[in-house]
């Protein structure tokens, strides 16, 4: 039985013990979240989530140890069929987290992504694909709740949970974990493919496709992620940035959102363009004299490519694309001379292939290195090789490969649409071969492991370690003009690498304003309109003075009404929606329309088009925007919380908390990155810290008599 089958059977047994029924519905993993499956997904985000969990299996309330307090949550599960033959299943859990039960109601992911100005929502929805290891944590929570219920301890403040259960939402080795706020903004917290999770048979691409379909189907507004993914020690955001001008997640539309250490989008894009455009010939010229492996690796993949590889971006893109095409143990038999790919079951002997190759090369030599059509080359070689099938096979395999000191080029003529061949003498580029080695073609084998080894070597010696040490070494040796140019070219590499690695937060806009001007046909037509609110008394009291905050405009929400509905009826519905959505709006009262001259008894669709926008105005006594609130209390209703009061002025240019480790000056209370003030990451922050400005002011103070 497969590992996933073990999980399914284990989950089924525990569910039966906790009172759940068997025979639950099984959903197709590949189709889940696509149009009409398992539901129509034709509402707003909050409506789609509520409709989705209705078709899930209602689990026992999970008990999770959050901030040292046992917290009860509603949850639902969906059994997903990954493969039918052989059978393979996994579970998707949806957990509803109520903000009012939490000690810390603010979302650190919103703060670090730059969404600290968002309002705190009443609910969060966690979507989790647990691995075999984390599945046991879920089942332990279910079993523990059943034990509490059966012993009548359910109302004992959940003290029995404390210390016995872990917070399953903080685990990092789930197959996938994403969280949505009830207003549709979300975060992808972790994604682990088959290489990261033992027993998983899903690749990272399959999991990401599932997540992307889910976000689209639910009509999420915007989703962020923190890209710290690595593979064999290589940061993928750096590799894919150079290769594709975007991170690995860029294949699904995720773009730069926010950088750390003062990195902004123009800096990020400039760094990527600089490394992508770095000519290979420049790297060979400056690095090849002391590192002979780099030119050899470059030449190896230039031979294998059907198109010219001239820049570092070209090289990494070709290597990554070759890796995706190459099976794990699918060895490619090729030749060190021509670099031709030849199957072991080939019906021609290596000797005959070598003879045909030489005949073709000699024919191209007689063409004086000009471009010649495939038919001309074939006809010229037939004088020496009568087997046309052999010639066709070699011509097909020979394009853009080495034969001795010559590179056979092949391309499609854009005018005649005919394949053409040309010979290029590369004897001054390819390292001189040992004269003892015969010119006979020798076979070698390339595997995916060899490709990964070459990629890791280039990553380490070009991007991570080698250039900085070479710059320092050459700066000490000589100060002539040539070396100054050399140092200048190589010095941009570590700087650009650092900038790219400091850009970790990416985001994708799915459905920003939830616009969906849809008409529902039922017992009575219902039309959609989009509404938000603006609070009239949006003031706070700061040290005895009243300060006005910017107008509060949360995202528009879709409201469906009868064609004959009035503004008063719409106002009541909008009040209910926003009270349910946001923690700080429990006392919201709307009284007027801000963007239209309308009375309460006027018909909505007499003044607003279907799918139009309406802004209501009102007050929120005792909540957000209430007059005479203190600043700290007011800020608690925003995801940024008290961090909005944190003053960040760092030498790197950062002016907000970006999630990196910081230290505060004990005099001026200004925050800076520990890295920027010279505190190593492995060292704790000092008990007393003074910034340079305060330190200089103390030094220049006059001495007391």
UniProtKB/TrEMBL annotation:
The keyword Zinc applies. It comes from the Eukaryota. GO terms for molecular function: zinc ion binding. SMART domains: PHD. InterPro entries: MS1-like_ubiquitin (IPR057765), WHD_PTC1 (IPR059080), Zinc_finger_PHD-type_CS (IPR019786), Znf_FYVE_PHD (IPR011011), Znf_MS1-like (IPR058054), Znf_PHD (IPR001965), Znf_PHD-finger (IPR019787), Znf_RING/FYVE/PHD (IPR013083). Pfam families: PHD (PF00628), Ubiquitin_At1g33420 (PF25565), WHD_plant_repro (PF25874). This is PHD-type domain-containing protein. It comes from Linum tenue.
């Amino acid at each position: 039985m497969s590992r996933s089958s073990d999980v399914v059977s284990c989950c089924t047994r525990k569910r039966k013990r906790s009172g759940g029924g068997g025979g639950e519905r099984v959903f197709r993993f590949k189709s889940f979240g696509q149009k009409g499956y398992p539901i129509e997904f034709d509402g707003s985000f909050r409506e789609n989530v509520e409709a989705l969990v209705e078709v899930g299996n209602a689990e026992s309330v999970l008990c999770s140890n959050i901030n040292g307090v046992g917290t009860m949550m509603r949850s639902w599960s969906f059994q997903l069929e990954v493969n039918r033959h052989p059978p393979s299943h996994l579970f998707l859990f949806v957990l509803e987290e109520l903000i009012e039960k939490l000690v810390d109601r603010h979302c650190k992911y919103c703060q670090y992504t730059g969404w600290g100005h968002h309002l705190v929502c009443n609910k969060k929805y966690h979507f989790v694909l647990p691995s075999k290891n984390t599945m046991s944590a879920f089942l332990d929570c279910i079993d523990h709740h059943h034990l509490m219920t059966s012993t009548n301890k359910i109302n004992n403040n959940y003290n029995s949970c404390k210390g016995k259960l872990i917070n399953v939402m903080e685990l990092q080795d789930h197959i996938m974990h994403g969280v949505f706020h009830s207003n549709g903004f979300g975060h992808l917290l972790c994604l682990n493919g088959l290489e990261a999770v033992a027993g998983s048979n899903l690749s990272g691409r399959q999991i990401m496709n599932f997540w992307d379909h889910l976000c689209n189907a639910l009509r999420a507004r915007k989703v962020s992620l923190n890209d710290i993914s690595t593979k064999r020690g290589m940061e993928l955001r750096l590799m894919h940035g150079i290769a594709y001008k975007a991170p690995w997640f860029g294949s699904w539309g995720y773009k730069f959102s926010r950088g750390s250490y003062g990195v902004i989008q123009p800096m990020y894009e400039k760094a990527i363009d600089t490394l992508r455009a770095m000519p290979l010939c420049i790297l060979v010229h400056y690095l090849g004299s002391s590192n002979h492996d780099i030119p050899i690796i470059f030449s190896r993949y230039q031979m294998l490519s059907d198109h010219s590889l001239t820049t570092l971006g070209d090289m990494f893109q070709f290597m990554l694309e070759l890796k995706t095409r190459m099976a794990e143990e699918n060895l490619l038999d090729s030749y060190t001379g021509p670099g031709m790919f030849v199957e072991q079951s080939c019906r021609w002997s290596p000797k005959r292939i070598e003879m045909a190759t030489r005949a073709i090369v000699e024919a191209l030599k007689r063409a004086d290195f000009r471009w010649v059509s495939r038919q001309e080359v074939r006809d010229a070689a037939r004088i020496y090789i009568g087997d046309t099938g052999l010639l066709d096979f070699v011509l097909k395999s020979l394009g853009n490969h080495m034969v001795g000191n010559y590179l056979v080029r092949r391309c499609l003529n854009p005018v005649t649409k005919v394949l053409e061949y040309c010979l290029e003498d590369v004897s001054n580029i390819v390292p001189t071969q040992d004269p003892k080695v015969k010119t006979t073609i020798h076979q070698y084998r390339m595997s995916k492991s060899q490709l990964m080894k070459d990629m890791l070597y280039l990553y380490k010696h070009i991007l991570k370690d080698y250039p900085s040490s070479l710059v320092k070494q050459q700066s000490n040796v000589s100060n002539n003009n040539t070396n100054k140019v050399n140092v200048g070219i190589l010095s941009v590499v570590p700087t650009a690498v650092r900038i790219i690695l400091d850009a970790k937060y990416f985001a994708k806009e799915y459905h920003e304003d939830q616009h969906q001007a849809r008409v529902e046909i039922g017992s009575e037509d219902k039309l959609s309109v989009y509404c938000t609110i603006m609070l009239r008394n949006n003031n706070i009291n700061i040290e005895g003075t009243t300060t006005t905050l910017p107008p509060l405009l949360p995202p528009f929400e879709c409201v469906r009404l009868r064609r004959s509905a009035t503004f008063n009826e719409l106002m009541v519905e909008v009040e209910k929606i926003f009270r349910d959505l946001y923690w700080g709006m429990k006392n919201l009262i709307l009284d007027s329309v801000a963007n239209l001259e309308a009375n309460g008894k006027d018909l909505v669709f007499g003044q607003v088009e279907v799918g139009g926008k309406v802004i209501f105005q009102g007050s929120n006594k005792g909540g957000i925007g209430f007059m005479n609130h203190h600043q700290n209390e007011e800020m608690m209703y925003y995801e940024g919380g008290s961090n909005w009061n944190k003053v960040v002025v760092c030498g790197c240019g950062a002016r907000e908390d970006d999630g990196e480790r910081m230290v505060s000056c004990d005099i001026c209370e200004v925050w800076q990155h520990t890295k920027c003030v010279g505190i190593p990451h492995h060292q704790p922050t000092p008990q007393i810290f003074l910034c340079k400005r305060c330190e200089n002011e103390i030094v220049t103070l006059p001495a007391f008599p």
